[in-house]
Design goal:
The N terminus is likely disordered. The strands form 3 sheets. The chain has a 7-stranded mixed β-sheet. It has 5 helices and 16 strands. Helix 1 runs antiparallel to helix 3 and helix 3 packs antiparallel against helix 4. Strand 15 and strand 16 form a beta hairpin. The chain is of the alpha/beta class.
Length: 225
Amino acid sequence: MKINKPYKTCPSFLKTVMRDIKAVKERDPAARSALEVLLLYPGIHALILHRPAHCLYNRGLKFPARAISQFSRFLTGIEIHPGAKIGKGILIDHGSGVVIGETAEVGDGCTIYQGVTLGGTGKHTGKRHPTIGKNVIVGTGAKVLGPFEIGDGCKIASNAVVLRPLPPAATAAGVPARVVRINGRKLSDALNHVNIPDPLAMEVERLEGEIKRLSERVDGLTAEK
C-alpha cells in the first residue's frame, strides 16, 4: 500500500489534473462537464494549488510552499499542508473544513467529504499523520488521527473518529471508530478481533449495574422495616 513515487520530483501536472477531473466526473453525479469541474469545484482548485506547493516543499522552498497552501485555504476552505503526499484521481467533495496534515499520505482514487481531518494526536516530530490507502472513502466530518495506516478500499463513516489502523476493505463507524464490516460482511463477536473497546459505554454499563444493585438493597431494607 504505497503511494506512487513522484514526490522527489514534480509529477506531470497536466496529466494529474486531468485524472483528478475525471475522478470527479465519475463519482459526482452533479458534475456535468470537465469545464464545469475545472472552473467551479473547490476540491479541484485545492488539488491544483497543492501540486506545485508540494513540489516547492520537496525542493526546500518551504515559505513559498506554505504561502500557496494558505492562499488555497483562503480560496477554497480546504487546508492541505504542502508536505502532504496526495495521490491521483482524488475527489474532495464540497470540501469545506477539510484539513490534511504535513505527514499525511492519501492514496490514488480516494474520496474525501467535507469536514474531514487527517491529523495528528500530539506535538512529536516525524511521522504523525495517517497514511490512507487507495480507493478509501472518508465520510463527512470523520477524523483520522495518528501515524497509522488505513487499508486499501476502506470506508469510514460520517463523524467517525479513527484512532487505530484499519485492515483493507474494512468499514468503520463510531467514536472511537470500530470495524463493523470487512468486504461488506458484518463481523460476528467471535471473529471481531479489531474492534476498539468503548470505555465510556463500559463505564456507563458498570454504573447502571451498581445503581441496580444499590436499588435492590434499599428495597430489601425497606421491606424488612
